[in-house]
Amino acid sequence: MNKNDPSPTRILLVDDEPDLLSGLKRSFAKRLPDVNVLTAASGNEALDILSVQDVALVLMDIMMGDMDGLEALDRIRSNAPDQTVILMTGYGTIELAVDAIRRGAWDFVTKPLELDNLTRILQKGLERSRLIEENKELRSKISSAGSVPEFIGQSPTMQRLYETIKTSATSEYTVLIRGASGTGKELCARAIHRLSPRSAKPFIMVNCPAIPENLLESELFGYSKGAFTGADKDHAGLFSLANGGTLCLDEIGDIPVNLQTKLLRVLQEQEIKPLGADTSTKIDVRIIASTNADLEKKITEGKFREDLYYRLEVLTLHMPPLIEITEDIPLLANFFLKKAGAEPNVSEKSFSETALTPLFQHNWPGNIRELQNVIRRAVLFCPGSVIDQKHLKLGTPPPALGTTINQDADKEMIPYKEAKESCLDSFTRQYVHRLLKQCNGNISQAARLSDLTRAALQKIIRRYDIDGNQFR
Ligand SMILES: Nc1ncnc2c1ncn2[C@@H]1O[C@H](COP(=O)(O)OP(=O)(O)OP(=O)(O)O)[C@@H](O)[C@H]1O
């Protein structure tokens, strides 16, 4: 179980044949020297022991006198649903064993017992219990006092952030969330809403750059019938849909200046005027804005209204880049490992003792999202159950424009799928870099030139953590 836990790892053998119990106990003392072996001669005795002792694994016979193993299994699992139970069965009772697995036993072994095989199964079962225990500890750390649901990280910087999130949630002021891509701005906006008195009302996230400029105004404020050709009925905008709740304007720095003026009016008056409507409608919406952009620079360039800036930045939250909270890397990495391991068709995996070391030297341009992707990839591509340094492929800077992708003959061969994915990654990076360079970072123009929709292009830019500002 937990390495730091002073209590020993215990297994409980349950069988009504005393000779088998004592024989197994002797064998395990040699084969599993770090494990404390307890024995019980009946289902009832096993339940008594489990009610007072922490036991990592139960190895139990199906056929017993007082209570059969299946009934004991049900009772054990109703008290401790995660308990690892392995059942022993004779050849004639395999159907019972299959039934046992359905009822939650972790595995079964057939008698006569083959000790090498049984020891291997016990070791795997103990590893499962250890992972479950670690997971519980992690969860309790996460839900400990200073944290915010769904946020991982216990560094002083994150603790301060949690305090600010909680304070922001109790107020009605506009919040501006600033930080680089992948630092958790969206997660933060959702947390503020969820912790606020508005949590039962809608939370609407608007990815501003993904909506074409000519549609953004009608998407936000709505339109009335006849406002333009094709407007054959009234259309509620996102502000109306968010009424009573929170509207998050993601990448606010990208909205056109004329719309900024209208937005400022909405913030001041708390009312909206749909396109083509004669009158304004009162709304009750809390605004959160987030940005990765240098708004101050945009103000000096005339691309962002200063008055809107002051209106928005009443409460400003700064999301730390991962490089500033490296002490949180182990917690985050383990969290993403469990998350990826819980996906369908993926088996549970753990990190080797030294696996995480290189993660502390990396500069993490894509921040927490990049870490999440690195762990996800490792879980998918690691063939065994232990993830080591070689499975954690850290990103390299994009190749210089114009370089070709080649697999040097003397380089170690990697699996075809992995090689193909890596070529595709390099190609996409090179392509988007050239594209944005040619369009001076103008997304609309780049979308037209590449024949991609703005939303699809934005998605690629985000996925590859490309900083669009460097091309402007
Ligand atoms: N502290 C954290 N704990 C757990 N998961 C996190 C944390 N911060 C970010 N994540 C995860 O990392 C991913 C990226 O986070 P998010 O989308 O909120 O970042 P962002 O700053 O909004 O990025 P972008 O600017 O590119 O939209 C998400 O899957 C999110 O759940």
UniProtKB/TrEMBL annotation:
Q: SUPFAM superfamilies attached here?
A: CheY-like (SSF52172), Homeodomain-like (SSF46689), P-loop containing nucleoside triphosphate hydrolases (SSF52540)
Report the InterPro entries cross-referenced here: AAA+_ATPase, AAA_lid_NorR, CheY-like_superfamily, Homeodomain-like_sf, P-loop_NTPase, Sig_transdc_resp-reg_receiver, Sigma_54_int, Sigma_54_int_dom_CS
- Record's superkingdom? Bacteria
Give start and end of each Sigma-54 factor interaction domain.
Answer: 151-380
Q: SMART domains from the entry?
A: AAA (SM00382), REC (SM00448)
| CDD domains xrefs | AAA
Keyword Magnesium in the entry? The reply is no
Name the Pfam families on file: AAA_lid_14, Response_reg, Sigma54_activat
4-aspartylphosphate modification, residue list: 61
| Domain Response regulatory: from-to ranges | 10-126
Kindly list any coiled-coil regions of this protein: none
Alphabetically ordered keywords of this record? ATP-binding, DNA-binding, Nucleotide-binding, Phosphoprotein, Transcription, Transcription regulation
Name of the molecule in the record: Sigma-54-dependent Fis family transcriptional regulator
